[in-house]
């Protein structure tokens, strides 16, 4: 029994996606992506345009020879040589499709093809018949359909269905359509073409006005049952409808649209990553579904909501589309709930609300200076808050000298207050000069030699933040230092960490 609500997903990343300037792929790269598309249970993989080059022929052939669970398709113009080449590439396909096309808009017929409409109909019918002689699954596209006349489309479609086309694709080739109009076109075609029920109607929308997904959804609502789309929305100019958005919109709003696909959505993020790494086209962070921020929350009010009940700010789960989890990003918009929750995950609980509030105030100060606050920063902040009550070592002065063309030299003076003496030490190197200097100072205390130092630096030339991680006897503490000079920031961080170690040691062995 056929499922009338099932939408066929036709992925054209390897054909239209590859037409993006700079996105050309080798045969091996295309094969890797095709395998991932098969794993994702894409219904049809358009593997390329066999006549375009010997390399593209080899790619389509390799994919057709390998892929078993998805239909493999090659594009061809309505020309003998193109159709035959496509057929040749698909000869071993478990399930193959020839996709032939010709433009039907007045502007394309007149200026590009330089053919009159009757000739276009004749060539389309001829091409479909020739393809049907090679393969049973033939798709026909009316290039630039959204700028074509409805009566002419009805005429040509009826004829190509009679000639054996099993899928009729209505492309919005130049991304000109708007959803209501495009849905209406599909509905009119289905209603007016007498043999429309003998073919699946498909759409192929470009994103020149950012409407590719909206137009695709309007089309399926009007009765289309195949959507042509690409991973990450790759494709000519502004790209094609993005597969991940179409699939997740159908799934998430099944209540309204009443449709579904056969896609294994957990393979979406791996597919997106693969396409991005192969093409070198980064995915913008705010891209729906597959962008790094698609399931990330930085705002305190949102974080608080998500922590209380995830659905307050998420309409899908990160896991459903292949992320490991959603993400709480700590930044200047974050609030206490997320701050506390993240630190608890890191193993730090606050002893009082006062302690939380002090650490949170320091966090807001730091967040005003820094784009993103990392776990190390958070741990350092808490260490710092706790150490501030116990300051054994104090940085009383620090001078940095640097000479052009040479490694800067830091001269550090540190006062160790409990011993009530001043020690001076010197170090060199752009960032760790201060560490060396202070290490040589405290080196007189044999136990301190056990410390290991890890510096995590961030910030710009004018504003540096340094986190130093110290370890002693299995205890790890973090110190945070911030200054306009990275070396001074390093020294502050180191001293804070030392104070923290001393303070926790004091707690374990209180002096009476
Ligand atoms: C909307 C789309 O995405 S359509 C697909 C676009 N993709 C590509 O073009 C990528 C691959 N293309 C190619 O490698 C080359 O263009 C080839 C191999 C297909 C053709 O190369 P050439 O023979 O040198 O032709 P060229 O690209 O210069 O021009 C296209 C020709 O095809 C004709 N043509 C365009 N579409 C069709 C069609 N559907 N059916 C028949 N002829 C067509 C044009 O009118 C033009 O013919 P002309 O040379 O007689 O004026
Ligand atoms: C070849 C066709 C389907 C196409 O890519 C378009 O019209 O955009
Ligand atoms: Mn296209």
TrEMBL record:
GO cellular component, as recorded: cytosol
SUPFAM superfamilies: 2-isopropylmalate synthase LeuA, allosteric (dimerisation) domain (SSF110921), Aldolase (SSF51569)
Keyword field: Amino-acid biosynthesis, Branched-chain amino acid biosynthesis, Cytoplasm, Leucine biosynthesis, Manganese, Metal-binding, Transferase
Pathway: Amino-acid biosynthesis; L-leucine biosynthesis; L-leucine from 3-methyl-2-oxobutanoate: step 1/4
Residues in coiled coil: none
Cofactor(s) listed: Mn(2+)
The EC number(s) this enzyme carries: 2.3.3.13
Renumbered residue ranges of the record's region Regulatory domain: 394-512
GO molecular function, one term: acetyl-CoA C-acetyltransferase activity
Protein name per Swiss-Prot or TrEMBL: 2-isopropylmalate synthase
Lineage: Bacteria, Pseudomonadati, Pseudomonadota, Gammaproteobacteria, Oceanospirillales
UniProt gene name: leuA
């Amino acid at each position: 029994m056929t499922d009338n609500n099932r939408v066929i997903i036709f992925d054209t990343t390897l054909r239209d996606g590859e037409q993006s300037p700079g996105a050309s792929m080798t045969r091996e790269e295309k094969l890797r992506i095709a395998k991932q598309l098969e794993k994702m249970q894409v219904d049809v993989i358009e593997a390329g345009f066999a006549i375009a080059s010997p390399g593209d022929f080899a790619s389509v052939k390799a994919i057709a020879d390998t892929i078993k669970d998805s239909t493999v398709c090659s594009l061809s113009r309505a020309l003998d040589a193109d159709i035959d080449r496509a057929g040749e590439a698909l000869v071993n396909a478990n399930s193959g499709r020839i996709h032939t096309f010709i433009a039907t808009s007045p502007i394309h017929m007149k200026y590009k093809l330089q053919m009159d409409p009757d000739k276009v109909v004749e060539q389309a019918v001829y091409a479909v018949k020739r393809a049907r002689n090679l393969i049973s699954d033939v798709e026909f596209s009316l290039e630039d359909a959204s700028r074509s006349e409805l009566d002419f489309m009805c005429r040509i479609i009826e004829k190509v269905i009679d000639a054996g086309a099993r899928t009729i694709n209505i492309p919005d080739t130049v991304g000109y359509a708007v959803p209501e109009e495009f849905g209406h076109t599909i509905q009119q075609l289905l209603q007016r073409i007498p043999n429309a029920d003998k073919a699946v109607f498909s759409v192929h929308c470009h994103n020149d006005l950012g409407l590719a997904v909206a137009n695709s959804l309007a089309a399926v609502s009007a009765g289309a049952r195949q959507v042509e789309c690409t991973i990450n929305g790759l494709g000519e100019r502004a790209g094609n409808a993005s597969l991940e958005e179409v699939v997740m919109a159908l799934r998430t709003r099944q209540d309204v649209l009443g449709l579904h696909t056969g896609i294994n959505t957990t393979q979406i993020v791996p597919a997106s990553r693969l396409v991005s790494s192969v093409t070198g086209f980064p995915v913008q962070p705010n891209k729906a579904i597959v962008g790094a921020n698609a399931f990330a929350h930085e705002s305190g009010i949102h974080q608080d909501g998500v922590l209380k009940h995830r659905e307050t700010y998420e309409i899908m789960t990160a896991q459903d589309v292949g992320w490991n989890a959603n993400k709480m990003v700590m930044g200047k918009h974050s609030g206490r709930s997320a701050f506390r929750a993240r630190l608890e995950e890191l193993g730090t609980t606050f002893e009082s609300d006062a302690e939380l509030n002090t650490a949170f105030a320091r966090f807001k100060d730091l967040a005003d200076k820094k784009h993103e606050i990392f776990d190390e920063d958070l741990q350092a902040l808490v260490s710092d808050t706790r150490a501030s009550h116990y300051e054994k070592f104090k940085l009383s002065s620090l001078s940095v000298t640097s000479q052009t063309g040479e490694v800067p030299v830091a001269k550090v003076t540190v006062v160790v207050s409990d011993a009530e003496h001043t020690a001076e030490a010197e170090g060199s190197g752009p960032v760790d000069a201060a560490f060396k200097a202070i290490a040589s100072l405290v080196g007189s205390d044999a136990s301190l030699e056990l410390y290991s130092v890890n510096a995590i630096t961030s910030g710009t030339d004018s504003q540096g933040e340094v986190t130093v991680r110290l370890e002693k006897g299995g205890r790890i503490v973090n110190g945070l230092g911030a200054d306009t000079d990275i070396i001074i920031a390093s020294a502050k961080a180191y001293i804070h960490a030392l104070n923290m170690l001393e303070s926790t040691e004091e707690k374990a062995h209180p002096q009476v």
